[in-house]
């Protein structure tokens, strides 16, 4: 019995000591930052934007009651936070932050991403699953453009982003964990999604591959909605610095090659003189084979199911001919995309993560020149297409 009481006292003492780690404040004393924007400042080096989630604390369920945007300039983020705190009735909390939006010119600096990771994770307690977006317009505009009457919470925002990425292929998703892994390992480069607000010159921006008459890039889409911010395209990085852009079509190709998609709708031309829309679905995971020859050889085997959404345009084209034609169209596009990434020294295809398997010890793995691998590898894309009659069924149904 005495031992039991001693055990209970020990547990109680431990619990009391743990309370010192918690701030003695209620949840209603915080305002939660859902998104952070980074821009160049006019008078100070940086301009920071916080998208705040307003909560109705008078309700017994603490319901969401809209979004609010606040901004401040500063030499660093902490200085801006202190400035904002002086004019807000509640303290800022970053534990629910799901979006980090950075204006593209800031990311040409090699050290910016590393500084962002160190600040976000070690000091502000932002979670690893917060998503990074590269903005083609000021980040403040991009965050303001996300305001809508739908009033989504942080979980819903991330769920919708993931669904949009996997069901369209128009954007990748990159969170803080992905960035940290790339910066620490030096084996591969990140690819981040693009956003932007509607511009006066839609279609005026081009990606690093080129050749598309209508490039799907955030802020350059021919659409009109109440939510001004558009999500489409990807930013290419090399050693943590922004080096190029991909439009939505080329982002779809990249997503198919690295396996991070479920389906994508692609436009093709020159079928009996007409353009057609084809829904492509992942049939099985992409297989990447990297051979340490001179030069290194990479082979991507990509298996897709294709659904022709306007079959009346095919005329007398047979199934076999159509499968071969789609495969050739995609292969040609892949050759141009891979060449552009290689020229920019961006390992968007993840060759370095495959090369890591060549080594049995840490010393050899760390000493390997992954950038030289990226610049010299020759790639072959084996795209295998199976036609299906229904977009939501397998080829056997």
Can you give me a brief rundown of this structure?
With 397 residues, this protein is an alpha/beta fold.
Description:
A hairpin with a 6-residue loop joins strand 2 (46-56) and strand 3 (63-74). Strands 1, 2, 3, 4, 5, 6, 7, 8 and 9 form a nine-stranded mixed β-sheet that branches. Strands 10-11-12-13 form a four-stranded mixed β-sheet. Helix 3 (112-122) packs across helix 6 (176-185). Helices cover 31% and strands 30% of the residues. By secondary structure, the chain is of the alpha/beta class. The longest helix has 25 residues, at 319-343.
Question: What share of the residues lie within helices?
Answer: 25-40%
How far from one another are the termini?
A: 68 Å
By DSSP, the count of extended strands is 13
Overall average residue pLDDT: 82
Structure annotation, total helices: 11
Spatial extent as radius of gyration: 24 Å
Oligomer: single chain
Approximate shape:
globular
Weakly predicted, low-confidence segments: 1-24, 391-397
Secondary structure class reads alpha/beta
Largest sheet geometry: 9 strands, mixed
Written as H for each helix and E for each strand, in order along the chain, the element string is HEEEHEEHEHHHEEEHEEEHHHHE
Strand fraction equals 25-35%
Feature tags:
alpha/beta; 30% strand; 13 strands; disordered C terminus; four-stranded mixed β-sheet; disordered N terminus; 11 helices; nine-stranded mixed β-sheet; 397 residues
